[in-house]
Amino acid sequence: MAKKPKKSTNLPRGINLTANGQTYRARIFHNGKRHTLGTFFETIGDAEAALSIARSDIARGVFVPPSERKAQAKQAEQSQARSAITVDELSEQFFTFMETVGRGRGTIYTYKSRYRSHAKETLGPLAVVDVTTKTIDDWHAALVKNHGRGVSRQVYLTVAAMFNYAAGKARDQHASFVPIIERSPCQVAGATKTTTKSQADEPVATVDQLAFIADNVPDHYRLAILLSGWCAIRLGELLGLQRHDFETVNGQMWVRVDRQVQARGKGLYEDTPKSEAGRRSVPVPKALWSVVEDHLADHVGKAKKSLVFPRTSKGTVWTHPNVLRNAFNRSRDEWNRLNPDDVLENFTFHGLRHTALTRVGQAGATLEELKRYAGHSSAEVVSKYQHATKDRLAMLAQALSDQM
User: Fold this and answer.
1) CATH topology of domain 87-193
2) Maximum CA pair distance of the chain?
3) Considering only 30-34, 160-164, 253-257, 399-403, which range has the smallest mean pLDDT?
4) 310-345 as b/e, with b when 16 or more CB fall inside 10 Å?
5) Which of 39, 159, 224, 322 has CB atoms 3.0–4.6 Å from 25's, for a disulfide?
6) What CATH superfamily is the domain 200-400?
7) What's the confidence (pLDDT) of residue 296?
8) Per-residue pLDDT tens for 21-59?
9) 31, exposed or middle or buried, with CB in 10 Å at 0-12, 13-18, 19+?
10) Does residue 284 contact residue 330 with C-beta atoms inside 8 Å?
């Protein structure tokens, strides 16, 4: 038969009955604070033994309160769990984080594609804590060798962003995040730099070349070529335009960029611009006003939200980016066939935007003006559009020669 617990008035100091009246609790004071050593001792002897051990630890200066021991054990358990996280698991956490903080669907798709194509096989199975700077150096060196610096830069930026997240250094990351590593191992010197030569040599279409390309695509896509080539509107942004995005204010026509059509992933979908700076209004050159008006009358539905560049005239179905891109490619190739002495080499649809921004830069636009025109938040990105074309450089050289 179990011994009936003593009344609380008869218990040794530091021991009392719990609320159920069947078990004992042991507590001790240390550094001005009372610590509970246990709440379910079945006998007074067990409670006294716990008190005796605690007093001995205090005397030896090694006493750790039970609450702290629990916290330390939990922290050690969490640390062990974090140390087991693989790069593959980190990537899934990172992509979920990107969705949570509102990164664009197309951006997330691109990051996933880069990781799975160029990093997953080598880095994926490794524990995040085991990835060293040498690991990243060796992986990056192989990437450059096999795919060149253009691809390696973009993939490296993606992987570096993942490890910044693991270190708790990602933009918009919550302060409550417990870092998996103290410092990112992505420390490759020069891995994120672009090559100035490729930027300076990027083709800029002449007025005649631009006009030819526009005149030789299907008529309902002609304005798209002109808006990209003179207003620097991206391909996806063109396809997202609606009738009400064109407006005339104080005698100036403007086109508002507020959305884009993407095809990265499964199917077409509407998305926001690449960044908040991408939401912008761009002035339309007066020479294009009548072209805009004719296009809206001939190819666009009457509703305010009618697509400006639908798959078919006055239709309601988005044009797939590849459809417009292929029409551009055929027209560019036709120019090159007819003009073998004046070909546009390596001139892509994005070259239309580059052409527009270069002309704006040559016209004397400041970096801030270029940022607003282009929809970029970085001055470094748009500064390249302030470079002159070779024709302009030749003109300047001739002017110096004349002075001589």
Assistant:
1) DNA polymerase; domain 1 (1.10.150)
2) 119
3) 399-403
4) bbeeebeebbebeebeebbbebbeebeeeeeeebbe
5) 39
6) Intergrase catalytic core (1.10.443.10)
7) 97
8) 788 888 888 888 888 887 788 888 888 888 888 888 888
9) exposed
10) no
Structure tokens given for 248: 């005339």
Q: What integer best gives the mean pLDDT of the chain?
A: 85
Work out whether the CA dihedral 67, 72, 78, 80 comes out positive or negative. negative
- Determine the pLDDT at residue 15: 87
Contact (CB, 8 A) for 225 and 352: yes
- The CA-atom distances, in angstroms, between 380 and each of 172, 317, 367 are 22, 37, 9
Under the banding of pLDDT at 50, 70 and 90, the label for residue 156 is very high
Rg value, the chain, Cα: 33
* pLDDT at site 11: 83
pTM of this prediction?
0.60
* Domains of the chain by residue range: 8-83, 87-193, 200-400
295-332 residue pLDDT tens: 999 999 999 999 999 999 899 999 999 999 999 999 99
Which tokens belong to 364? Answer: 């004397």
- Rounded CA gap, 275 and 318, in Å? 22
Domains 87-193 and 200-400 share a fold: no
Length of the chain, please?
A: 404
- Give CA–CA dist 352/205, Å, rounded: 7
Sheet holding 33-41, edge to edge: 15-17, 24-30, 33-41
Dig out the tokens for 332 from the structure. 């560019």
| Contact between 239 and 305 (Cβ < 8 Å) | no
**How many C-beta neighbours within 10 Å does residue 397 have?**
10
User: What is the phi/psi pair of residue 246, to 5°?
Assistant: -95, 130
Judge whether 255 and 227 are in contact, CB under 8 Å.
yes
Distance CA 239, CA 309 (A): 6
Least confident of 16-30, 149-163, 378-392: 378-392
**What are the phi and psi torsion angles at 269 (to 5°)?**
-155, 155
Cα–Cα distance for residue pair 228/351, rounded to 1 Å: 9
How much is the average pLDDT of 236-261? 94
Looking up tokens 């990243």 gives 136
